[in-house]
Amino acid sequence: MKDNIYWRMTKEAWGRDRFSTVSFTAFVAISVAMISLTAMLFANLTGAMEHLMEVAKTPDFLQMHAGDMDTDELERFVLDRPEVADYQIIRFLNLENSILMLGEESLLDSTQDNGISIQGDGFDYMVGLDNELPIVCPGEVYVPVCYESMYHVKIGDDMRIGNRKLTVAGFIRDSQMNSMMASSKRFLVCEEDYESLKSLGSEEYLIEFLLTENTDMNAFKTAYEDANLPMNGPTITRPLIKMMNTLSDGIMIMIILLISVLVLLISLVCIRFMLLTRVVSETGEVGILKALGISGKDIRSMFLRRYNCLVLTGAGLGMVISILVFHPFSSQMQKLYGVSANGLSRYLYALLSAVFVGSVIVLFLLRILRKLNEMTALGALTGSIEEGKKNSNMFCIMLVTAIAVFLMLIPSNLYSTLSSPEFVTYMGIGNAEIRMDMRQGEEAGEDFEIIGKALSEDKDIMEYALYQTSLIPVRLDDGTTMNMLIEQGDHSKFPVTYSKGHAPVREGEVALSYLLSEELGLYPGDVILVKTAKEYVTCIITGIYSDITNGGKTAKLFAKYPDNEENVMWRIAYVTPNDDANREDFTGRYAAKGAEVTDMVSQVQGTYGPTLKQVWQVSILVKMVSFLIILLVIMMFVRMMIANQRNMISIKKAMGFRSLDIKKSFWKSCIPYTLAGIILGTVCSCTLGEGICGVALKSFGAEGFRFTYNMWWVAMNMLMAGFAVTLAVYLGSNGITSIKAVECCKGE
Asked: Structure pTM?
């Protein structure tokens, strides 16, 4: 008998209020879809990255070096280090971007250091798109996979290096340099072509080590530096490679995860009110069941079984949606890293996520349905049960609107920030219009002086500054000595973002990056000893700045005329030309003097282009989801209020009020709360949202993160939310028209 009653009540409930049934299922589906998509993307990114690094045999420690080197000293070092499982030296021919062409497109404006290399002997393989080692024939070249879409390259196209022409035979994944966060890109050629092209570039060396498990990376790095081995170039470790690969795609996953949690919270709030409304509307049936002697536990079970069907339907629909949208959101990472070794793992993660979300909703339903235990048969039959207050409904409308607007604005604000030229200040790079990188080589110092003199005499320049980065010994308070990557120059010009203190502005002052400061426990006011060309000098730490380059561990030393030539890594100049300067002529003049000239806007686009594309995709998805949430939620609440006030609306109609007049009263009730929600969501996205993104980027070294706002996008998002609110109230209040004046007389 109970089962027959259950099915009859379920059928009547679903048929009586199809909107609530569809809305409940939609909220479950959206929550499951977002959480499952996050889990699938995370599983694919980590699994594919680990698989690629395993197949490519990524080195644990890599030292780039430009210049002469003594391989005998290196071999003796390896023999004395039991933690070294294997090592090799790979040659890398650094080529000028101006002599490179892919198809019909020049690489002149590329922000990457491009070069050619041959395949590693025992590890550090560049693998094809099938994760197999490509066989390179003479006259062929394999292109980094990230350039396929960037330069519209196809297999069979030509690549020109100076006057030489090579045929693109395929694309490669380079576990070290896949990410655009990596500043260099390797093209794979055969040894014969490498030798024939050597005269066109400057040769560098990649000194690579495979280490045994549980090796202390910092201890090995210190031992390498103390042995005075070749290190005229940046040092790269396996954790740093993982960080660079994770940062670009991880930002998108972080945004989706944040949105998923907030969407789940919205769904729970809405489900609570939908269920309470359903319980209130069915108090008569509940009273009859209690009068027949059916226990509160059995009645609760009836309601729960009904909603369990909707939870299962919504969860299944959400999983299907997440699988359908997975490909467009994962296409970039699949191209760069391939797929996980176990492709089924992401579906398992999606299933577990769906089970988790479904369980949370079911437990939430159980908690709400405990209200049935408090009902008495008499109270239910007479309708003397609390229906909730109008202000509570209005508060929920405001809260949901605020969260939806918050969701809309976070990706938009993040996109505006990452695409802004000022974002380079979080990378440890000065906010200049143009950056000049000096070519490495024996004449680099002379070129630096020539360019410095030319800049000082150039009438087209408004402001400029020269900087030289070296690996310099530093002595700490406890007597320990370490090599620190220090940029020397006048840091009062083109300052980076400082979270504490200020830039070094006089001799004897130094600033540390956030991650280096945290690692050493040094802060403004502390002292370190820095070795100059002659001796150790005392330097006071004046500030802590953001830097997500070079592992985030760098320092800036004030030196008006950099004179420390020991272990120089690179030399650069920041320039701001006059507004009327001819940029093309300017670039050509300094390129001829030995500088690689890069526009800073192009630098940001080149480094964060793929990430910006993904953030933009997420932004569009979030706007659609938020619009749908506002529409469904406010429609639902308006319909709930109309249902609860049906008798009062009928009385008003009997008194002569028109449907339009009653609708206006609902508009006047809803609009102030939704407007407050839009304003609250906007304020929270600019404060709380900035803090959330800042916490995530802080782990990569970007301390003191601040949003750069595009007020046009902020206004558009607010208008979009306002339109969704207006449409929702309009559609939700249409039910007033169907209420008849005679209903109050019949007691319906």
From this structure: 0.70
